[in-house]
């Protein structure tokens, strides 16, 4: 809200600057003494959290762009090289990827808070619309960034989503196809597509930052909404933004960073898809294309509508309808806290959005498709029917006379560290409990389905193993990695390459830690093609520590010819490219057995209990005694499988130990800092409550 300036320049330089570029005055008036409703709860802290996350994404993205190679041949490998060879590259890449998820988590909470408390109502319509614009820009930016990994899932997501524009052909023949070819820069997704997405992905965050500035500007004209929805009436209804909300927002930010740090350091791939660690292959479509989790509700809406054109309209409409909410809601009351009927519809809407997210991750068939259509119907009905109708027929509760009355009441307020909150009847907690229950069920359903499949003999049998490198404090067993390398070299390397590893990596901290001399010996055992020499001829030489692991085949065609048409996958990141990771690899290597009675095994295939479909082209590679061990470990299939799996896990995550160690330090720092911020917040707010108590009893 507009208010008189209280800024007083304290020095000659400040006075000189204030008459020419009053930036200190703006910061003082708008971010320090800005009058803010005194009853804002922690849901309002996500605005500041979002500003911080935008800064994180821009800072990490700029550095990543310096090392990224936007070509189909170099994109995937450049991302992995950032993780391995760039100083703190793993932190930048994982920070950017996990940061995108945290950014969307915060923006969805921020949006649902705005919906619940009616922050879109007059005079804040422009503020809300700018927020929707930011959401659209975020979705576009995240989609383009997701494509840059150039893995199987991101490549096919780009192919499928951009191809949706071809539905416009049903309106104007040729329009959609022309638009798709213009976006692709050709007749299929390729180099020009990647270049364009890369350029736009770099540009859009600066556009978002500009709209965020407008968003904050639009907020400071009418001022903040508040949980009661009652307008500010007197100066007693507000308090300065600093120090009260700066310390409160700071405390909430530290708590948010704790969640961010847990995912970043201990589960950076939890919210991603394993197929994105497989290089993009235009000739092989994944069995089930799934976007990132924050797109799943919109993806479910797209697939719930059978007609392609109407599906695209539904997808765009699911976001576009948000723009018109200020006029669709006919209620005179802002806050849902005072709307007993609408409150139930709102919580059902939140549950519907969570359900759409889960349904978007499942195949669009059977009951999944039915519930997807049902949820899609309610999604649009909530805005187009429920909001207008309930607002007209509902009888809201009585509002407090002012913001101050909602906080202090008629009795002297207790001297506490937080504003007094509105009373919440026990039955009001039911929608929240139902929301949490549905979220828990949605997380457990996929695991339960896999367990049931396995029990029926139809799904893969994968059991969790104990690994020394398991988070949060796990580390690799060097002796195990050295044995695993020997198993790889003697058995796996006959068919599989590891093109992202160099022999020098074997001597680096956190890995097998061979001595430099041992690494030179291991590298020299390989014959490397080099050249051309002075005569223009290629020649062979012994390998060096700087050389990449030698591939067993000259090219993919030779690999297919030697393996009955099957292409052995590269093992560099195989431990992250398969659901289940190391547990799956161990189960696969130990899962060869005779097929059960009645199982139709295709000729040339082998039965494996852990492999999807139980038929695998690769014969059993491990037998007892195949690779002799010199450290006393028994040369059994079980030990071979564990050792080589640990080695493959290290090859996929060579900085895992460093990540765990830094994560432990960061977590300790954040926990201590959170305690300090909590007591600081209590002290700051206690001063306000003592003043309120004295004023109320005077």
How would you characterize this protein structure?
- Keywords: Electron transport, Heme, Iron, Membrane, Metal-binding, Respiratory chain, Transmembrane, Transmembrane helix, Transport.
- It is found in: Membrane.
- Component of the ubiquinol-cytochrome c reductase complex (complex III or cytochrome b-c1 complex), which is a respiratory chain that generates an electrochemical potential coupled to ATP synthesis.
- Residues 479-634 form the Cytochrome c domain.
- One of its GO terms (cellular component) is membrane.
- The protein has a two-stranded antiparallel sheet.
- By secondary structure, it is mainly alpha-helical.
- The chain has helices at residues 12-18, 23-31, 46-67, 75-85, 89-117, 125-148, 152-163, 175-184, 191-220, 241-266, 296-304, 308-320, 325-328, 340-360, 366-393, 403-408, 429-455, 478-490, 516-524, 556-562, 581-589, 637-652, 656-697; strands at 35-37, 238-240, 527-530, 539-542, 606-607, 615-616.
- Helix 11 (296-304) runs antiparallel to helix 12.
- The chain starts with 11 loop residues before the first helix and ends with a helix.
- The longest helix is centred in the last third of the chain and has 42 residues, at 656-697.
- The radius of gyration is 30 Å and the shape is globular.
- The protein has 23 helices and six strands.
- Among the domains are: 290-406, Helix Hairpins (Orthogonal Bundle), CATH 1.10.287; 456-501 and 569-653, Cytochrome c-like domain (Cytochrome Bc1 Complex, Chain D, domain 2).
């Amino acid at each position: 809200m507009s208010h008189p300036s209280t800024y007083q320049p304290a020095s000659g330089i400040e006075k000189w600057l204030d008459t020419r570029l009053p930036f200190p005055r703006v910061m003082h008036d708008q971010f320090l003494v800005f009058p803010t409703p005194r009853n804002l709860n922690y849901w309002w802290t996500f605005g500041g959290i979002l500003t911080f996350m935008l800064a994180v994404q821009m800072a990490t993205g700029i550095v990543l762009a310096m090392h990224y190679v936007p070509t189909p041949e170099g994109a995937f490998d450049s991302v992995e090289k950032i993780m391995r060879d760039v100083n703190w590259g793993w932190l930048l890449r994982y920070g950017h990827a996990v940061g995108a998820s945290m950014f969307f988590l915060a923006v969805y909470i921020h949006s649902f808070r705005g919906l619940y408390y009616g922050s879109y109502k007059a005079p804040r319509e422009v503020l809300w619309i700018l927020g929707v614009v930011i959401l659209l820009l975020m979705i576009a930016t995240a989609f383009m960034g997701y494509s840059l990994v150039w893995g199987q899932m991101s490549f096919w997501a780009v192919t499928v989503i951009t191809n949706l524009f071809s539905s416009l052909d049903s309106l104007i023949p040729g329009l959609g196809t022309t638009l798709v070819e213009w976006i692709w820069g050709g007749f299929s997704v390729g180099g020009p597509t990647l270049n364009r997405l890369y350029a736009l992905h770099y540009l859009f965050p600066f556009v978002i930052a500009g709209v965020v500035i407008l968003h904050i500007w639009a907020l400071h004209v009418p001022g903040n909404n508040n949980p009661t929805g009652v307008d500010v009436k007197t100066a007693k209804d507000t308090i300065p933004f600093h120090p009260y909300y700066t310390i409160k927002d700071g405390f909430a930010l530290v708590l948010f960073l704790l969640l961010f740090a847990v995912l970043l350091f201990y589960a950076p791939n939890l919210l991603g898809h394993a197929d994105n660690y497989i290089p993009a292959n235009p000739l092989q479509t994944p069995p089930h294309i799934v976007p990132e989790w924050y797109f799943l509700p919109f993806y479910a809406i797209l697939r719930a509508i059978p007609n392609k054109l109407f599906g695209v309209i539904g997808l765009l409409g699911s976001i576009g309808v948000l723009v018109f909410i200020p006029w669709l809601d006919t209620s005179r009351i802002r806050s849902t806290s005072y709307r007993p009927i609408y409150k139930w519809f709102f919580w059902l809407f939140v549950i519907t959005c969570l359900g759409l997210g889960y349904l978007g991750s499942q195949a669009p068939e059977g009951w999944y498709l039915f519930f997807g259509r049902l949820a899609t119907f309610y999604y649009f009905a909530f805005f187009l029917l429920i909001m207008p109708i309930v607002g007209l027929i509902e009888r809201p509760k009585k509002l407090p006379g002012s913001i101050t009355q909602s906080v202090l009441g008629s009795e002297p307020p207790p001297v506490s560290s937080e504003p007094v909150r509105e009373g919440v009847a026990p039955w009001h907690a039911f929608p929240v409990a139902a929301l949490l229950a549905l979220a828990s069920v949605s997380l457990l359903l996929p695991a339960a389905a896999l367990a049931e499949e396995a029990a029926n003999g139809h799904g893969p049998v994968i059991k969790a193993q104990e690994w020394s490198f398991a988070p949060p404090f796990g580390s690799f067993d060097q002796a195990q990695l050295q044995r695993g390398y020997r198993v790889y070299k003697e058995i796996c390397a006959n068919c599989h390459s590891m093109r992202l590893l160099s022999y020098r990596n074997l001597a680096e901290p956190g890995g097998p830690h061979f001595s430099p001399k041992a690494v030179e010996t291991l590298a020299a055992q390989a014959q490397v093609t080099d050249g051309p020499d002075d005569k223009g001829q290629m020649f062979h030489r012994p390998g060096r520590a700087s050389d990449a692991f030698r591939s067993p085949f000259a090219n993919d065609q030779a690999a297919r010819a030697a393996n009955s048409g099957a292409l052995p996958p590269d093992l560099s990141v195989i431990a992250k490219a398969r659901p289940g990771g190391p547990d799956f690899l161990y189960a696969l290597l130990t899962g060869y057995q005779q097929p059960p009675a009645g199982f139709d095994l295709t000729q040339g295939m082998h039965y494996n209990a852990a492999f999807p479909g139980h038929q695998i082209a690769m014969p059993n590679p491990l037998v007892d005694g195949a690779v002799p061990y010199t450290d006393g470990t028994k040369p059994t299939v079980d030990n071979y499988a564990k050792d080589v799996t640990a080695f493959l896990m290290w090859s996929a995550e060579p900085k895992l130990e460093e990540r765990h160690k830094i994560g432990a330090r960061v977590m300790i720092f954040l926990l201590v800092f959170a305690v300090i911020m909590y007591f600081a917040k209590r002290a700051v707010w206690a001063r306000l409550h003592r003043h309120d108590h004295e004023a109320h009893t005077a």
